[in-house]
Write a structure and sequence with these properties.
The protein has 651 residues and is mostly helical. Helices cover 62% and strands 1% of the residues. Helix 2 packs antiparallel against helix 3 and helix 31 packs parallel to helix 34. Mean pLDDT is 93; it is low at 4-30.
């Protein structure tokens, strides 16, 4: 029995997570006289600002008159009293630090406050100046402002309102506004309630419940105690029917048979569209469980509008079942924004090929073949070309790198990295990359290499379009440690490097929000268990971030999982992220062998699904670098078969 790497039910952490620095996180407020340096004062200021302690923030900021990063000192001083600060004071800050990342952050904060207070005059003036424009709440406020001025924003709102976890106060307020002025119908509102149910956003459903004619208590009971709602049956009104449908979806999460029984019993009381929506709720849950019946349930949804995630689940279940016609139809029914995702371009090409539409399939594969990454690699192989490395660009000059060394934003980022403030450091670094061309990005990546900030080197180099330097994108630090650890147990070093690149981006003291540490992101219990299994008698938890110890424990754990899962890198990679039990459970629902790419695509956890794709794509490129020859991602993915299949039975 293996220890589970991740806490059950927690978000699965990968390289995309915010890496928490143990040193910074361990800081506690201290008396002013106890500060050893201005950096300690700054960290205390940051904490005070985040706690909305305006008086403490003002006192600490006053001690930092000559600090190296004045824009952040002033930001942390102003942020706790943003709601009471004068308009002129905020404008003065934005003018003083115009063009900096932190000024855009303050404008984001100010716009949220303006939206909450319905100050549309100032909001409309400031919103076009918000550079990143990555806040769903602000997008909802912007549409709300337009709607209040009589503009038709219904189509934009429907396209935007797909992520209830990010709605905050703004998006339910937008929905209410659109209902009030007639741009949204009751169907739009119930669609949002069903979406909130699918994505576990009960708070959103509660906020928009008054916009329906349902009893709020009964509707929320459908979320919290759905069996009681199902026991009463569908009722006679539209609101009762919709509440019943929500309860079906909630019940199906834990007891699919009970949901199907209730739906079958109550189906005659629902109209055709309501029955299709009810089956969509059941199919959605069945898809997460990877039940073989899921494609049948999806067929009963006919052509009703689906949420983006429901579209994806419908397509994945058809793919897993080998229903290529149903897969094609599912992809073609997606909105254009989904159809343009590399995954669905690739799988549509595969469906076309099965149907004998070779030229159409090849056109789709060609459109992906220039992309690096999972689907670009698979598309190349569909076209009969192996995965190879691109030619290296012309070497960078010292002058090109020197420009980056003199970049004020990159210097601010390095200051934050030195203090283990990775969130602020990454924000500053990425802000400076926005307008860089390929040569400048390569130079910035090289500057990061020189400063030993390898995660920024990788992420920066990954942004280039035409000039690709895979020595930057796929670095191989600690080569002696890696060679010794992998050779000792005959483990594929390319795979291990691919995993580390995804796990920690080579940040030695990386710490995830669930407590995983080091290059290979080991959980404390896993590290202790592996140390005991391999006879590392002098191991202590404090050693987990030491490179040699972390790699030794991580590679041994990975090797144990690989051996337990019959040598499948696809299965073992999933196990490393989600725990060994889950890949076995996902395999147990297969009715036939499937190619590894199909298995990876149908993993129900989005984090693990992307993790497996990224790790094995990385490993394929690392193998090309290490071996100096073309590679096959398909061969690395292999074939996944239900337990009990013999090798001779595999395709």
């Amino acid at each position: 029995m293996f220890p589970t790497k991740w806490i059950a039910g927690a978000a699965l952490a990968t390289a995309s997570i915010a890496l928490v620095a143990p040193q910074a996180q361990a800081k506690k407020p201290v008396a002013a006289s106890a500060f050893a340096s201005d950096d300690d004062v700054f960290l205390a200021l940051r904490d005070a600002s985040r706690s909305n302690d305006a008086a403490r923030a003002a006192e600490l900021a006053g001690r930092l008159g000559n600090y190296a990063i004045p824009s952040y000192v002033d930001y942390f001083r102003l942020r706790p009293r943003l709601a009471t600060a004068s308009e002129q004071e905020i404008r003065d800050y934005l003018t003083r630090y115009d063009g900096q990342a932190i000024a855009d952050r303050l404008r984001n904060d100010w716009l949220l406050d303006l939206g909450r207070n319905r100050n549309w005059t100032l909001f409309d003036e400031q919103y076009p100046l918000f550079v990143l424009n990555d806040d769903t709440q602000l997008k909802c406020y912007a549409l709300m402002s337009k709607a209040l001025k009589g503009q038709d924003v219904a189509a934009e709102a429907r396209a935007l309102l797909t992520t209830p976890q990010q709605y905050g106060e703004a998006c339910p307020a937008l929905i209410a506004t659109l209902v009030e002025n007639g741009q949204f119908t009751v169907e739009d509102v119930w669609s949002q309630v069903r979406l909130a149910s699918e994505l576990d956003a009960a708070a959103v459903a509660r906020r928009i419940a008054p916009l329906t004619d349902a009893n709020e208590t009964t509707l929320m009971q459908a979320f919290d105690r759905p069996a009681a709602v199902l026991a009463r049956g569908p009722g006679k009104t539209r609101a009762a029917h919709e509440t019943f449908i929500v309860a079906l979806g909630r019940t199906a999460r834990n007891d699919i048979d009970a949901a199907i029984k209730a739906l079958t019993a109550g189906a005659d009381n629902l109209n055709g569209k309501e029955r299709a929506n009810a089956w969509a709720q059941v199919a959605y849950a069945a898809s997460f469980k990877l039940l073989p019946e899921a494609p049948v349930f999806w067929r009963r949804t006919e052509d009703i509008a689906l949420s983006p995630e429901a579209h994806r689940r419908k397509a994945r279940m058809a793919l897993r079942a080998g229903e290529w016609k149903q897969l094609r139809e599912a992809i073609e029914a997606m909105p254009a924004s989904l159809r343009s995702e590399p995954a669905w371009i690739y799988w549509l090409g595969r469906a076309f090929r099965v149907e004998g539409r070779k030229d159409e399939a090849n056109r789709l594969f060609e459109s992906l073949s220039g992309q690096t990454g999972f689907y670009g690699q698979l598309a190349l192989e569909e076209l009969g070309r192996p995965v190879t490395l691109p030619p290296r660009p012309q070497p960078l000059s010292a002058e090109e790198v020197a420009v980056m060394a003199n970049n004020a934003g990159l210097r601010r980022a390095l200051k934050f990295f030195d203090m283990n403030l990775r969130f602020e450091g990454v924000r500053e670094w990425n802000w400076e990359l926005r307008r860089m061309n390929d040569r400048e990005l390569l130079a910035a990546a090289e500057f990061a290499r020189q400063k030993n900030v390898l995660d920024r080197m990788v992420n920066t180099s990954d942004r280039t379009k035409a000039e690709l330097d895979f020595t930057q994108r796929f670095p191989m630090p600690f080569r002696d440690v890696m060679s010794a650890a992998t050779e000792r147990i005959q483990l594929d070093m390319a795979w291990v490097y691919g995993l580390i690149r995804q796990e920690s981006r080579f940040v030695q003291n990386a710490r995830s929000h669930v407590g995983a540490s080091g290059l290979m992101q080991l959980m404390p219990a896993t590290a202790k268990w592996v140390a005991r299994k391999i006879g590392l008698s002098d191991f202590s938890p404090q050693q987990v971030n030491e490179i040699g110890t972390n790699v030794t424990l991580g590679t041994n754990y990975l090797n144990m999982v690989l051996n337990d899962l019959e040598g499948s890198q696809a299965m073992a990679t999933a196990a490393y992220n989600a725990g060994p039990g889950r890949p076995r459970a996902w395999r147990s629902t297969l009715s036939r062998p499937v190619e590894g790419a199909v298995f990876a695509e149908s993993i129900p956890f989005s984090e693990t699904r992307d993790y497996v794709k990224n790790v094995l794509s990385n490993a394929t490129y690392y193998a090309a670098l290490l071996e100096g020859k073309p590679q096959s991602l398909k061969a690395r993915l292999g074939t996944i078969a239900p337990q009990g299949y013999s090798p001779s039975e595999l395709p």
